[in-house]
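User: Hey, quick favor. My workstation is busy. Could you predict this chain's structure for me?
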Amino acid sequence: MPQRYRDSLAWLLLLASLLTGCSKPEGQALLEDYLYRIGNATNTEINSSLDQLPAVTAYPPRRERLVVLQDIREGMLDTLDLQACNLLPLIAQRNSSLGRVMPVSQQLIYEIRFYSLIRQCRTLPQVRTDTSLLRQVNEIYRAKQQNLPRVLWNAIYNSAEIEANFALGAPPLVPGETDSLGPALNSLQHFEQLIKLSQQATPWQLPAFVEKLEDDYEILYRNPFGAHWLSSIRLMTETLSRAASSLETRLNQRPLWPRARPTPKAKILHNVFLRYYAARVQPYMALTHRSGQRWLQQHERLLQALKYGDLLNDYRSQVLSLQSTLWQDYIKARDRHTRAWQKQLSQCGLMPSSQI
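Assistant: No problem, here it is.
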């Protein structure tokens, strides 16, 4: 290959690499294309770039969320007959070099297993007939029982994996995707089951999924649905607001359908509605809406069940609730956008029978 062709190929490859590196996420590109076409069809000035969005409340720093655990009185475990309660292997694991630096997932597994074993220990015949031993077991049980709500709170809403789901700046959801929410919800539902069990007065068996809780943490970290959804709902809200403004501005001008005769611009706008809004934006909005509802409802259940859920009250009111500012702003933008299209299409009897 001649040198000049090699040089040209190198430049083309470099240009392709730069263009690929600068390409926008598919969801953002779809919405920006819609805004551009709305502005062109209505002949109104509209900013189609969604690189800059209105600010949103960030997840609170760790120091504001952390709940300090109550230490078990020094020496309490040293004098306990660990073998009688089948706690010896668990304590040995906790006191090992690896046990002292347990990740949050392993800490939760340890505490849940310990609580389950010490609770069962209180019912053993050899313990119930030994007054001194029973007193020790009950004391440790009460301490662990009081600590468990703190352990659960820290293990869920103070974990790096959950924090990743509230990060800002992640790419939005991919249009048409269907499998990102399910695994995340399943992991959160495991946490919800643990919370309910910890509050149950009657005896309960340790769930089989407890030993695999690390898998749930990994799912939430490697596929942070929440962070992607946060980007999607913010992009969608801004898009619908700008598009509504453009349509409303056009409505205040000369009708696009004078004497029921559509102008070329009217045909273009109707084409934007059918080919770009109804066919592309609306399905993406439905994905964002439905998955967001399920995501927020799951967190509402968790936070209502957890003893220290009120530590996130401000964040919930701004972001993490169906009553939050974030969600209500989206609903308002959606409804405003719907009304603007309805008015525009009604001018010449082109309103579709289905929901806009």
